[in-house]
Amino acid sequence: MEDWHGGLKDQAQGERIRLSDVHRRRDQAAQAASKKIRNAARRKEWTRLGLSWGIILFFLGYLFVGDMTWHELRDEVGFPYTMEERIKDSYYYEPQGTKDGLMVYTSKQDPNATAIDLIDAVYGKVYNIKQDTKSPERWIVIYTTKEVSVISVVNGTTYVEVGELKNLSDSENTRIATIRNDSEVLLRYAYMVELKNKQGRKTLSNIIKD
Questions:
Q1: What is the DSSP letter of 151?
Q2: What pLDDT score does 164 carry?
Q3: Spacing of C-alpha 184 from chain mean position
């Protein structure tokens, strides 16, 4: 018996059902409903598996039939290979710590060969390239839409500072902003790489290295 507001009363009556008395319905209607639920779950699972295999086969088709590398495929689907990834993946570079928000590495190659390597890594998709051939450091600064790579020479050793633009400190940004000359040759090379013009790339690569 329950007393409600306003003087109203209510009551309910029932009894406890033993667990042993609870049985699953096995008549035709119950079996049909159960089968329908199982079939719906099975179709959903097959659809999910089909989509997964479809995506895998699509990628494999690009890789093997379309003559496309894994890095090129990443670029096509919006996850491009980065300069920093290239440096971490290559034996040409050795980590040296951090500086002003960028990772610092030494390179086993000269500044021009290092620049070519990084341009190749991003398939020529650079925003700008600055260069100062007259300075002792032989500065080269490569910009993509999200990254920056600063190449220089100190005591005969090539250094590379690389990282995302958003991590660049104000002092580093001010320093590299003094390098104002566009590198026409390296920009031409990047353009050839982006166009997949192998003959032009080879010619420009020889010019740059010389």
A1: E
A2: 93
A3: 28
Could you tell me the mean pLDDT of each successive run of 10 residues in the chain, 210 residues long?
Answer: 57 64 58 65 70 60 55 61 91 93 94 94 93 93 94 96 90 87 91 85 74
Query: Is there a contact between 165 and 148 (Cβ–Cβ < 8 Å)?
Result: yes
Query: For residues 126 and 65, is the Cβ–Cβ distance under 8 A?
Result: no
Which helix (H) or strand (E) segment holds residue 17: the answer is none
Cβ neighbours for 62, distance < 8 A, ≥ 6 positions apart = 68, 73, 76
State how far the Cα of 40 lies from the Cα of 34, in Å rounded to an integer: 10
Distance CA 194, CA 190 (A): 6
Q: Is the pTM of this model over 0.70?
A: no
Exposure string of 106-134, with b = 16+ CB inside 10 Å and e = fewer, is ebebebbbbbbbbbebbbbebeebbbbee
d(CA 62, CA 120): 20
CA dist., res. 10 & res. 182, Å (int)? 88
